[in-house]
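Q: Given only this backbone (301 positions), what sequence would you predict?
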């Protein structure tokens, strides 16, 4: 069986489109949050300027091999997640490397980057790195539990582990979307989505309003640029999974852009309305609300 090398070209094209859309939409949402707080906010092109600056810097500081592999693993998780999603349903060009059973691989990639960053932080030598790792992994694990239960529910519902087949089962009208055929699974997944986006009220691990500490401070130059690049890719890739599994997929780029914008806006709206949770509060919130709804979704399926 010969390998179609054009798939690599098409995958890189998908990556190029998603990176640029991620940089633009991230800046737009930052500006929306700033305007709500009666501030002006960053210009739309700010993310481009930051990436160009950081990729142009070099560092002679070393903390060990694994410390610098952390951002690489983080970016690998986002890129790998995107490349195994059939972004545009029915398109040979933008179906990427999707295959039968790719749903299991996607679940792995969702968590891969977080584990990589935990390994990197462990070698930073910072006295509080262990505390940060514990807080971060605890919250991420709790937030991913409802999503995993929702995925199991729709796998039972559609009797397949193929993302393409799940999207195909939702064609023929919006009433065929998982949103309407299994609303409990979608509810559990959306509760998980709020936590996985690391936006308020679930961003206390990053503590953006506190004394600067953690990965954005410890990493610098091109290593920070890798993390910034993943920050543009991973949210869009994660939302692309939601579009495919719960909202009927996308048959064209305009539809994809619209659905991603609307789903992303849910986390932005919640972030500007509700105050931040402490780590133990957020974990308790996911276990009390998200996990039981996910279990109910499985029972219904």
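A: Predicted residues:
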């Amino acid at each position: 069986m010969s390998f179609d090398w054009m798939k690599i070209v098409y995958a890189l094209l998908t990556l190029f489109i998603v990176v640029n859309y991620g940089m633009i939409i991230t800046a737009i949402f930052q500006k929306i949050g700033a305007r709500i707080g009666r501030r002006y906010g960053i210009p739309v092109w700010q993310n481009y300027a930051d990436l160009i600056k950081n990729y142009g810097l070099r560092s002679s500081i070393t903390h060990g091999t694994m410390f610098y592999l952390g951002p690489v693993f983080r970016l690998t998780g986002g890129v790998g997640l995107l490349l195994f999603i059939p972004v545009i349903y029915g398109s040979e060009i933008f179906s990427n490397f999707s295959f039968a059973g790719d749903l299991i691989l996607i679940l792995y990639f969702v968590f891969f980057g977080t584990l990589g960053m935990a390994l990197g932080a462990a070698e930073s030598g910072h006295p509080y790195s262990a505390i940060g790792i514990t807080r971060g992994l605890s919250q991420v694990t709790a937030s991913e539990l409802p999503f995993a239960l929702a995925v199991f529910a729709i796998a039972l519902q559609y009797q397949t582990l193929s993302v393409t087949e799940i999207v195909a089962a939702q064609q023929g009208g919006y009433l065929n979307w998982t949103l309407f055929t299994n609303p409990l699974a979608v509810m559990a997944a959306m509760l998980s989505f709020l936590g996985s986006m690391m936006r308020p009220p679930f961003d206390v691990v990053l503590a953006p309003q506190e004394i600067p500490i953690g990965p954005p401070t410890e990493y610098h130059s091109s290593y920070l640029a890798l993390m910034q690049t993943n920050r543009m890719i991973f949210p869009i890739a994660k939302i692309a999974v939601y579009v495919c599994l719960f909202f009927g997929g996308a048959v064209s780029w305009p539809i994809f852009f619209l659905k991603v914008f609307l789903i992303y806006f849910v986390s932005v709206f919640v972030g500007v309305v509700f105050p931040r949770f402490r780590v133990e509060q957020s974990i308790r919130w996911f276990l009390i609300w998200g996990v039981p709804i996910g279990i109910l979704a499985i029972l219904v399926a």
